[in-house]
Amino acid sequence: MARRTVTVRPHALALGATIAIALTACSRGGDAPRAGSGPGGGDATPGGGASADGGAVALPDGAAPSEDGGKPRSDGGPDPVFASKLYVLPQTPFAVTKIGDAVEALLAATPSLAHVIVFVHGRACGGGGEPGKSLGSVVPELESDYAAGVVMFHWPGSDDGCPLGFPEDQARAAGPALRTMVERLDEHLATHPATRAKIKLALLTHSMGNIVLEAALASKTGLAPAVFATAILNSSATAAAGHAPWLARLDFATNVYVTVNSGDNVLLAAGAGRGARLGRDLGTETLTARAAYVDFSAANVNHQYYVSSGQKGAHMRDFYRDALQGRVYDLAGSTAITKRTVRDGATVYTFDGK
What we know:
The chain is α/β, with parallel strands linked by helices. The protein has a single domain, classed as Rossmann fold (3-Layer(aba) Sandwich), CATH 3.40.50. It has helices spanning 10-25, 99-109, 132-135, 138-146, 168-173, 175-191, 193-198, 209-216, 243-247, 265-270, 314-324, and strands spanning 85-88, 92-95, 115-120, 149-154, 200-206, 228-234, 253-260, 292-295, 337-343, 346-351. It has a ten-stranded mixed sheet, with helices on both faces.
């Protein structure tokens, strides 16, 4: 798919510079955060970014990072250490348990920021692999398209078996890390009411990133229902069959959307020998009222349509702008909807493609 040139938003440059200043300013070896070695490098995390005046942002609980990259828990034990990592532009890594620090670093670099997207990428064939593939292309485009800061959740093994592989086991293995990230985000928002009031958070899971989400939802989390204003399961590579039970357990987002596109050739290939993929064909499968199903088939797009370069039509763009900025899109009243099909207590909304 052809890609348009995007400009990295100023906060990405400011974030890299201020974190570097914060790291070099730490002179006490025992208290200083360890700098990461770049994409995929070690468990080191910056000490929460930097404030607008260049000083280090304090950790949520005021403690220095533990040696394994996780903050101490209230019970005195360390947080788990995961192979998955979080990244913000330009290529700054954070431990999964440091999601609060990643969000605060974005806010420190751009104090006017009002929208943050937590993005779980899909399969990583081409583009040099993840996390560089998305950090060099779609993450800057997400930030530009939606006036948002982005925290990317990276799961290892997403490039295994390229070009024909389907690394489902690797995606499922990252489920506990994603679940822990959401739990830590909920904790951070509970102790940082100013941050909760300032930003709207959206969760965007793309393609095989939805298998990570499925694995994270082995049971309900019991978290606040408004950790995220919006969750979008975009071009989901999960199986359509049997998706309703696990999706019904998504209890930490106010509005949940599943996008569907019968013209998605990537998911057509992914389903060969595995059964229909959720993001391509609902078939007669049982749906869940927990989500609104949004059918973009009439737009004649392919797979990566969460960014404007992969979209067609103003109506599709309007939907994504509202959803990824944490607003409610009026599916019930929108003139862009040509058909509303009610099934199993859920509604499938068919867009006109215009």
